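Note to self: the last two entries modelled the partners one at a time, which told us nothing about the interface. This time every component goes in together.
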Amino acid sequence: MHFQHPPHAEMKLVSCVRGAVLDVAVDLRAGSATFLKWHAQELSAENRRALLIPEGFAHGFQALTSDCELIYLHSKPYIAGSEGALHAKDPALDIAWPLEITEMSERDQKHPYLTDQFAGLTP
Ligand SMILES: Cc1cn([C@H]2C[C@H](O)[C@@H](COP(=O)(O)OP(=O)(O)O[C@H]3O[C@@H](C)C(=O)[C@@H](O)[C@H]3O)O2)c(=O)[nH]c1=O
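The predicted structure of the combined assembly is written out below.
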């Protein structure tokens, strides 16, 4: 589940042009009524939906077919040093992934679980 820390927080518009994914956004905004809650939306070439993910949210997805292609439009440039991430299986998020997670990048497997110290992102 990826995001960029402020002041490089970005908005993303995600669509799936081949296959299907479950696309998930997690609210990381400090003080938000939906802090650490997630929202999932199936995006597919068939349903032609797109998900707009605001600044202050983490984003990730699970492939539902083996042939997915996604397009992301980002509102800010990629800044390597400002990357942040949550673990997709973090119990504090309890994301209901529809399939067993069988593949994850080495980098994404290493993200630590959240602790009580995480107070959220402030713009
Ligand atoms: C995202 C990105 C990565 N990179 C580099 C960093 C790294 O060395 C390599 C692979 O990066 P990542 O492992 O972050 O790639 P990836 O896991 O595909 O990252 C993406 O995940 C999804 C969920 C998102 O929401 C995207 O915004 C992006 O964070 O590419 C760029 O040079 N430019 C970029 O815009």
